[in-house]
Structures are given as structure tokens and as C-alpha cells.
Amino acid sequence: MEAMSEQQPLPREVSIVRVKLGPERAAPQPDPLGRDVVGFTEGLTMSELWDRGRGVWKAKLATVAEAELLVVVADGQVQLVGTVDGVAFHGDRVAIAGRPLPNHPLVGEPDPIPNRSQNPIAYGSITTAPATSRVVEQRAYEEILGDAIAVMSEAVHWRRQVLHQPEPGRWEPHPTRTEPGDWAEFIALALAGAAANAGGIEAALAGRSGSWEADHVRKLLEGTVGPDEADLWRHRTEPLTMTLYVEQLVVDVAYDAYEAYDEDTREAQRLLEVAERDDPEPDDTQFVWWYDRDDAGEFIARDPAAPAWSWETWREQPTRPGAALSPEHLARVEDSLRTGVGLYSGRPGDVTSAYIIKSREAAEELWRLEDERDARIEPIAALEEDLETQRLAEWQTYGEALKAKIEQLATETPGLNVPVHITVDVGTINPPEDSPRGWSSLQGHLLEQALEQTPTPADLPGTPLSRLRSEG
Q: How far is 130 from 429, CA to CA, in rounded Å?
């Protein structure tokens, strides 16, 4: 049996998705995750906090798929860290799949991606411990061999009862007499069960299929279940499990679908560039005083009409509702400004400027202009994200169709009478080497048949953008 061991990796640059929770409130119903409440309050268990942090969100799926960690923040402080193993779709939103990482070093630290945005989702890279890796530890070959010898030795000494006829027409086991069991049959049946669990005779012999030992085992198995494995699957005792790595399957069998999405993604980026050029961000110099930090650590106003720098004024300047920093975080930002050391980079000289909003009225006018501009740009900026959402949804639909076809083919496989468990994975870009396709195995054969009989995303009508616009 395989065992899982935990390794503590060294800190390195890690991509993260940061989720900022607001105060606890009733969950809008129906909630896709079955929650009654969402948001943050003191005293939540790790499981409760994970459920509230992982979804459901409107997120940049391509960026989420590349992230290693989900960082859940509330009150300006990291409350929980977990892995990002994939996503689950709920309408136009997603829930992040993964697992919490107890005692991660980020827990208790300030928000690693502070901003003034009302969007609870942010993305970035920070230096910290990545997701704890899991390493499969196999039992030693000698230990497994010893167990196998012990079982076969027990079988070779096993004796079966002899039937006798105490009276005409009635047979029953003799009370004292036994005879040697059919050890050869035991070995043949055990090998057939192991080969069926491996996925087929050649899958079981793949480690050294051309050896003389493999040749003899192959002949024994073919004599037991037939040369075409016709009687093999009734010997299987383990459930049939497989993961469909849809990303790789689409690359292999429907690359035109990938090219279509790449082309339309570039078009979405071009449209956004044009929109941002023609509708630039509002000029904030009308609403804030900018100051440059000199070598002595003093802040010098760019505008001669600006008042002298004041730390008290800087601390008390207006902030967007809901975006105020905690006193602890505010102190860290102030220390970064005073020393010039980057708050998160830790590099001296990274801080070169700062600003102070001129007044509450100026702040509100700037926020209004920013919000109006965001409202104009957002539909265009969302095109790339919406294309990615649509792509993953189409990949998911394709994976579910493959799954249904494999389940159907499994029921039509003579003798196969074990549960079938198939997982659809649309997020893994580089699947494990032991993924089903290419195996000389039952899983591989079923997948190849399903691929031949299932329409791919390349068969969908129109282009990705035309499908997106038609749905909109």
C-alpha cells in the first residue's frame, strides 16, 4: 500500500490568488456550495474559513490555474492559506478546489496584495513556502516479495476436503480426509486478478515485457483467460479508476480548438489596448498632491502650490469605503515610506514617491471618474477572462462527454463488474506520465474508443468570440 509523506519545501517565488473576505453575512440563496453564511467573523474553524474563502468568485481562470496558493484575507491579515488544485464551475463563477495548509508561514501576516479595489480577488507573486508537496513512498521490493512468497506458501500447504457418500445419493465433506489443493490453479487465478487490476496482460508486463520470465507468465495468463483477454476482466477486483486530463487530450486530438482560442484571445487583447488608449485613466494630479522621495528621505512636492509633506495629513487622508488599512498595516506602509525599503520586495530604494489626496471632495470626484471609466472599460477588459471561462467550460463539457462514453463502454466490456470512477480534470497542463492515454491497458483502450466516438471542441460552430457574443 502506498503511503504519503509530507516534505517542507524551501521558500521561493510563488504565484497566489488572494481572496479578501468582508464581514459575515447571510449567503445569497441558493448558494452553490450549500452555505448559510459567507464572509469573515472571529472563531471560524479552518474548514469553515476554507469554505468561505474558496468561492464562489468571478475570477481570471487562466491566472487561477497557474496559481499555487489561495490566500484568504480578512481585516487586513492573512487568515488561511491553501493549495489551488483546480476549479469547479457554478454558472459564470468558480469555486477553487484544493486543501487548507495548517500553520502556513503566511498566516497572521498582513495582506500580501493590498489595494484599494473593491474586487475581493487579486493576483500576484510573493516569496514564501509553496504548497506542501506530497511524495509517494512505495514499500521495499523485498518486503512485497516476502509477502507474496508467504501467501503462495500458505496456498501451497492449503488442503481441500474430500467428498464422500455416506449413503446413496448424498455427498458431503469427509470428516477427516483432505487432499492437496490445486496450487497451480491458485497461481493462475492470482496472476489473472493482478493482471486485470493492472489493466491488462501487457500493462502488467510493461516493466520488462521481452524477458523470458514475461514470456512464460504471458503464456500462463493467455492459457487462463484466452489470447485476446476475453475472460480477463471477470477477474478484476479493484475499481476502474482514471483521470481525464482534458487539456492534454484537446492538444492531442483537437488542436484547432486551441488555435481558435489563441487567435480570439489576441483579438480581445487588441480591443482592450485600443479602448485603454482612447479612454485613458483620469489625470489624478487634479485631485492628489504628488511627492518625490529624495536621498535624505524627505518628500518634495512636485507642484509648487502643494503644501509641505505632513505625516499626519498622509495618515488621515480619505480612503475608499471598505478599503481602509488596519493600523498595523498602515504602520508597515509608513515604515516603508520612511526607509525607502519596498514593503514586499524588501529592496532599498524601491519607494520613490507618495501622494496625499487634496480633500474629501477631490477624493470622491476622483473615485467617481475612476468608477465611470472602469464601467466603460470593464466589458472589454472582461473579454479575455470571459473567453477563458468559456474555454474551460467547453473543455469541461467535452471531458464530461468522454466520461459518459467511457462509462458506457465499460458496461459493454464482457466480464467487467467493478465500480467505475472517472475524474475530469481541465486545469492540469502537464499530466503525470501514467495518465491513461497510451497505456496498453483497459483504461487506454476505453479512452481511445471514447475519443474516436465523441465530438471535440473543434467541432463547435463559429469562433470562440462569436459563441461568446451570441450567449451574451
A: 18
Query: What is the Cα gyration radius of the chain?
Result: 32
Cell numbers placing 450:
471514447
Distance CA 50, CA 307 (A): 47
Q: CA dihedral defined by 167, 170, 176, 178, rounded to 10 degrees?
A: 130
Q: What is the pLDDT of residues 276-307, one digit of tens each?
A: 999 999 999 999 999 999 999 999 999 999 99
Residues 277, 259: Cα–Cα separation, whole Å:
27
- Is the distance from CB of 112 to CB of 126 less than 8 angstroms? yes
Q: How far, in Å, CA of 120 to CA of 347, rounded? A: 27
pTM tops 0.85, yes or no: no
